[in-house]
Amino acid sequence: MALPKPDELLQDVNLHKAPEKHWMDIKPEFKRGTYCYAVEPQVMEDLGLPHMGQWQPHDEKWPLPPDWKERTLNALRDRLNRFRSFKLFMDICVRCGACADKCHFFLGSGDPKNMPVLRGELVRSVIKGEFSPLGKLFGRLAGARELTEDIIKEWFYYFYQCTECRRCSVFCPYGIDTAEITIVMREVLHELGIAIDWAMKPVRFCHIVGNHIGIQPHTLKEIIEYLVMDIEEITGVKIEVPINKKGAEVLFVPPSGDYFADPGIYNFMGYLILFHHIGLDYTISTYASESGNFGFFNKLELAKKLHAKIYEEARRLKVKWILGGECGHMWRVWHQYHNTWYGPVDFLEVPKSPITGTVFENAKDNKIVHICEFTADLIAHNKLKLDPSRNDHVVVTFHDSCNPSRAMGILEEPRFILKNVCNNFVEMPENTIREKTFCCGSGSGLNADEYMEMRMRGGFPRANAVEYVRKKYGVNHLACICAIDRAVFPALMDYWVPGVDVCGVHELVGNAIVLDGEKERTMDLRYRPLKGKEGKEGEGV
Amino acid sequence: MYNSDKVIPGIIIFIIFFTIPMWLNLGGAKAIPRPELPKEEKNCVESKEYMRAYHMKLLLKWRNMAIREGKRTFVGADGKTYLISLQNTCMKCHKSNEKFCDRCHKFVATHPDCWHCHIAPEEVAKLRRWQNGNR
Amino acid sequence: MNVGVSLLAVIALILIPWIGVSALGLDSFFGIVIPYLAFFVFFIGLIYRIVQWARVPQPFKIPSVCGQEKSLPWIKYSRLESPANTWEVVLRMFFEVVFFRSLFRNLRADLQGRRLIYGSAKWLWFGAILFHWGFFIVLIRHLRLFLYHVPSILNYIDYVDSFFQIGFPPIYITDLMILGGLLFLLLRRLVDAKVSYISHASDYFPLFLILGIVISGILMRHVYKVDVYGVKELAIGLATLHPAMPKDAHIGTIFFVHLFLVCTLAAYFPFSKLVHMVGVFFSPTRNLPNDNRMRRYVNPWDYPVKYHTFCEWQEHFKEQLQQAGFELDEEWCKGQNVAKENKAA
């Protein structure tokens, strides 16, 4: 797949010019790099879900089931009767266009159907044209149209060009949230058997094995052992990691990306160092070994299915409360959905930090705490021995991951941590951070390799802000609290802003923590020399 | 229905808001006040329809003619010539601003500022009587 | 085409009462029957829409959080952008509905070569404020024509609104606001390529319609005067449910044009995007607090979902677990089975 060079990619993007043709007359063009591959039928079968057999989006004729139209309309009707959000958002948009240039996919592609308003209109038009007598009467004048096979293709194309980041909903005067529309529309497509492979395989893995990557219990143990060895090599301290320990106080659930791949593993090492440092009585589970949730990118029912395990595991291990790792959509699900799905959570206790005694009142009902809340509290109570100069080789900026910021509002905690563990922390321009943060361009299950062109386009606004601070302050690290961010940013940075590494917040915490009995540190968790210790990193090995 | 604890009061507020006129008029609406028309004179300087809708425009025109251009004659619709003067021409027939002008103006809640400067002959007489009485 | 069709539709709507009143003399049809009909449709239609929304549950608590959450006591949280209780939600909604707070955030993005530049873009907010506030005050001001005893507050509003005393009768500030706002919104829809591309005829139509109402109203006040006394007689009759055409008064045709356009707007309202007036109150991303972990939100149609239980999983990975030296938890599975049997019994 030939990905255009960065300077060429945006040549055809004009944000202030619209196509000649009416959008209803433009069919989606399945150009390589702009769509994800269809799901393998076996995956759907393993999960008992409908599928369309072997097919690919670029096929001229899709093998839609014979009753596709009826099925689609029924699915839509069903959602209109169950989701007030969806029904309302279909009804009240006035097409003021405030959302138009807020979507990262629009900014990176210039495709008008990536304006949130038009993305919504793709469905709104069909609902008017199929269910409303007035819509049927006035047709295109009222923005109504009949459902056709091409529209199914269009839906697939554009609802898998939305990362459910909710940036548009911040700017909408009625709070219309395109993520909500995308969630519903992916469900509707699912009922026809349409799904993407990259978002479904992790669901199957997570369902059967326990995590997205499909790491089996014994392998997880081995990985952790390797990481513990690395930590020992770097710090000189051997760390015990409790796995499946009954009666621990806290069940810690990290995203699998954090123990699977670079640079997540460094973040995981950061968690382990932190827990060892404060002597936390915790455990990791091999059964509930995934805090992220790819089910959420497909169907709410699947999301509920995957995370039910966490609560069974908490019950089985008789822990007091649950601590969640750094992850984006995960925290959307944990914060906004868990309590509704799995509550009342009366078998756990109100989370209380065993180190500081702080009671997490904000999590008193659902008993789940974000690790940044936990760590920020530790630092505020001066319970961590920190040496921020060990991050002096790092000039870091913080990327607010979409969902922790716009679904949860965890803005200050990670910044507070970063300011305490690093000496060089700078902010990106204000219109690109906090609640106005830009998506990585690959969220919601779209971090597939075959989707690279669209990922580079969608990630462009974020990368552009990083480029700005790189030029201005020499930023060389992009910290984030999302596992998908950590998985996709390296490629995005290599493409747009070479020279910027990606890290989790707790990796930097791990660098800064001064462990009891540690040796003189010359390397960070990535075996890179610390500032002023260059050339010494080989010593002692 | 969900959230009826908020939706039903919402509907009630909505209905009340858009039917305010009905509620505020309850019991208060009486026969519509009619201005007292001159008994002797039947014709005004222009037609009745015109005067009902446009009298303020005419008075404005009169003011401009009299004050700014120094013209004091006006030819009415019936071809007759009139002296341009609120107090001497209009109020010759419409003697009481209370019974004629104000009745209507109060009713439709409009606030002409004629009486900031002018004074109706009726008022002048009243004032005289009061002054005399005081002596 | 969208623009032309909408404009033609509004012109047709102007001609209907014009011909109906001036040529056919259908005064009481346009003065009494149509207004009642239109407002009946307005009320029933809007209540129907409200009930339709209310009948659909909001399954999850999904506020769009636009500020710091309430978490640790030493971190100041944003009461308006991340409301943690009902009172703060009320405040957030108040600012949203009354001052269009979200729209105030609006930005403009421009691509310059390889650089994205963001600028403040408050014009849309300003135009919307002019239009909506203008409309609201004009509506309130019209009460003077419907109320037998005009409350003094209306006189004050009138006084302030005509404060500059320009022209005679004085020009209302709100008339200029609504006109300016409308023209801006219309112009923006025509000129901005993005907004123009997403606009349907049904987006232009209400703009032209309200523009028709505003212009006819302004003309009526300043150029083609009508017998206000007669108008009020009719209005009070309508409001007190004793409708009658005013005796011996002739109200100008332009009044009927104005009234007919208002009636059209009222009747069209519930079936168009204009329902955003009521819909905004239902918006789940704005009217719910960000307190999910503090207070549980119940989804009325929640149903149990079958998941891969620990025991099924343990069975599946028995070998690997034993190999890795993990103890099997038979006890838990026994307990689960017992619980299952009890449930079945």
What is the fold's blueprint, element by element?
The complex is a heterotrimer of chains A (541), B (135) and C (345).
Chain A: H1 6-9, H2 41-46, H3 68-82, H4 84-92, H5 104-109, H6 116-131, H7 133-138, H8 149-159, H9 167-171, H10 178-192, H11 197-208, H12 217-235, E1 250-253, H13 257-260, H14 264-278, E2 282-284, H15 300-316, E3 321-324, H16 328-336, H17 338-342, E4 368-370, H18 371-380, E5 396-399, H19 402-408, H20 412-421, E6 425-426, H21 452-458, H22 460-473, E7 477-480, H23 483-496, E8 501-504, H24 505-512
Parallel strand pairs in A: 1-2, 1-3, 3-4, 5-6, 5-7, 7-8
Helix pairs in contact in A: 3-10, 6-10, 8-10, 14-24, 16-19, 18-20, 20-24
Chain B: H1 4-18, H2 20-25, H3 48-68, E1 73-75, E2 81-83, H4 86-93, H5 97-108, H6 121-134
Antiparallel strand pairs in B: 1-2
Chain C: H1 2-23, H2 27-55, H3 86-99, H4 101-104, E1 107-112, E2 115-120, H5 123-141, H6 152-161, H7 173-191, H8 193-198, H9 201-222, H10 228-239, H11 253-268, H12 276-279, H13 310-316, H14 318-323, H15 330-344
Antiparallel strand pairs in C: 1-2
Keywords:
heterotrimer; A: 541 residues; mainly alpha; four-stranded parallel beta sheet; 24 helices; 45% helix; C: 345 residues; Fumarate Reductase Cytochrome B subunit; 2 domains; two-stranded antiparallel sheet; 2 strands; 59% helix; elongated
What does this structure look like?
The complex is a heterotrimer of chains A (541), B (135) and C (345). Chain A is mostly helical. Chain A has two domains: 28-195, no CATH class; 204-512, no CATH class. Chain A has 24 helices and eight strands. Chain A has helices at 6-9, 41-46, 68-82, 84-92, 104-109, 116-131, 133-138, 149-159, 167-171, 178-192, 197-208, 217-235, 257-260, 264-278, 300-316, 328-336, 338-342, 371-380, 402-408, 412-421, 452-458, 460-473, 483-496, 505-512, and strands at 250-253, 282-284, 321-324, 368-370, 396-399, 425-426, 477-480, 501-504. In chain A, helix 6 (116-131) crosses helix 10 (178-192) and helix 8 (149-159) crosses helix 10. The model of chain A has no long low-confidence stretch (mean pLDDT 94). Chain B is mainly α and 135 residues long. The model of chain B has no long low-confidence stretch (mean pLDDT 87). Chain B has six helices and two strands. Helices cover 56% and strands 4% of the residues of chain B. Chain B starts with a helix and ends with a helix. Chain C has a two-stranded antiparallel sheet. The model of chain C has no long low-confidence stretch (mean pLDDT 93). Chains A and C meet through helix 3, helix 4, helix 6, helix 9 and helix 12 of A and helix 2, strand 1, strand 2, helix 8 and helix 9 of C.
